[in-house]
Amino acid sequence: xxxRIPLMRIEGPVFKxxxxxxxxxxxxxxxxxxxxxxxxxxxxxxxxxTLLEFGLRRAQGPDGGLSASKYCYxxxxxxxxxxxxxxxxxxxxxxTHAHAYVSSYECINDLTERELCDHLSGERRPFVDLCLQYLxxxxxxxxxxxxETNKGELAAFxxxxxxxxxxFLALVDTYDVLKxxxxxxxxxxxxxxxxxxxxxxxxxxxxxxxYLSLEVRAKFIETAKKFxxxxxxxxxxxxxxxxxxxxxxxxxxxxxAIDSFGIGTHLVTCQKQPALxxxxxxxxxxxxxWEFFFLFVINLII
Length: 302
Fold this sequence. Notes:
Number of helices: 12
Oligomer: single chain
Shape: elongated
């Protein structure tokens, strides 16, 4: 859009074009608003970061959430957590499990499935045992004792990895990121690697995102060196937690190691400008048409 230049020009009979006012405004306003907001987030992060739309639960109802997913994708986002939007519009679907998934497990004994088929050979491997062994090996690297990590969280990660071995991305802040979430994630990621799968990464959803991301990246690098698995140093770090445009600018100023941002509330509700002030105005009428319209109104009054 440019100053003094109409976004759209409609020509036709007055009555027919007037009937289009509400339809056009409702279609153009929200779409332009959300796509522009998404473009601003993209401008704040640059082209190298992955941006994911996580706004369905904060949108103005399911229809608003579905529209927001579409317009955020048009505005430069890379994917959405909205499965229906993925089905209807072909938008890549991205996401992780919930905190509730983690807290629903109390201990390793809650696991009913304890084996994982090797990705190459198809051989069934004792996956739980592998993860527990790696957790012990990680102790000196992460400066933690294996008993310090939350075993319910570990069980949840193992369960999730068995269900999604080719797309394992864990939410690690349910209890303590550095003392529990990160060690448990790495133990399961190493188990997946031994079974010839590639773990994706982890998600931070609270705390000092800049500091935590740098600490996590440092541990990724140490783990990669210790176990001679080069790609581990580049595992994905996703950050969420009520991120807005100012947060992104602040993170860039602080320095961080985040690869991807999940953005919800401030994206789909456009809190900086909740409504776009587009207007639909009659700007030109041929003289004879205007006279006809005037006479028509006079006749109605009479």
